[in-house]
Design goal:
Layout: E1 28-31, H1 32-39, H2 43-51, E2 70-71, H3 73-87, H4 92-102, H5 107-111, E3 114-117, E4 122-125, H6 128-135, E5 142-145, H7 146-157, E6 163-164, H8 177-190
């Protein structure tokens, strides 16, 4: 990941406010199927990206057979950026560098960033002047306004289900199974 001009806006993770107010409802997560629908990717892609640590769900990762990954709103924005970069032909290696830096940022920070790429290098731009500086080089580039991805994900999630981030606590059984079986056996013997 490269920065166009200002070293203070680099992808080193030193700037960012994880947990900011606009990170969405911290008590809500989105299952893999919902994440796929919101972002426009296959479940196979999502699973691969999670297993290879490209985008790991921050609410709850899978912890064995039968457990569900839960993605935060911020995770979905990052997934959307990954998809757009792949669609534009950026290598997975360069995408990994960009995503590594995005992980430490809050949604407010992400929403103010435009990623510009020439297909090999990805640059972070926080102002129109930085975008113009890159375009003056005369090379063909494309841009991804993360704020646009943010709005797209919000729109997609408006009709998709969310679930509580905390795992539901099972209610204790009214009567232990052993006692019920013992009672049945006693009734059979007696009667």
């Amino acid at each position: 990941m490269h920065e166009p001009r200002d070293p203070g806006t680099g992808w080193d993770g030193s700037v960012g406010s994880p947990g900011s107010v606009t990170d969405g409802d911290a008590g809500v997560g989105y299952r893999g199927v919902t994440a796929c629908q919101a972002v426009g990717i296959s479940y196979r892609q999502l699973d691969y990206w999670a297993r290879t640590a490209l985008v790991v769900p921050s609410v709850r990762d899978a912890s064995g057979s039968g457990t569900q990954r839960l993605y935060s709103f911020r995770d979905l924005v990052v997934l959307k950026v990954v998809k757009r970069l792949l669609d534009a032909g950026v290598s997975l290696q360069n995408i990994r560098k960009a995503i590594e830096a995005l992980r430490s940022r809050g949604v407010e920070d992400l929403a103010g960033i435009t990623l510009i790429s020439d297909g090999t290098t990805v640059y972070e731009c926080r102002s129109p002047e930085e975008v113009v500086d890159l375009l003056q080089g005369g090379q063909g580039v494309f841009g991804i306004a993360i704020g646009g991805a943010f709005k797209e994900i919000q729109g997609s999630l408006s009709h998709l289900p969310a679930e509580p981030a905390a795992a539901p606590v099972p209610e204790p059984a009214a009567e232990p199974v052993g006692d019920e079986l013992a009672a049945r056996r006693a009734r059979r013997r007696a009667g």
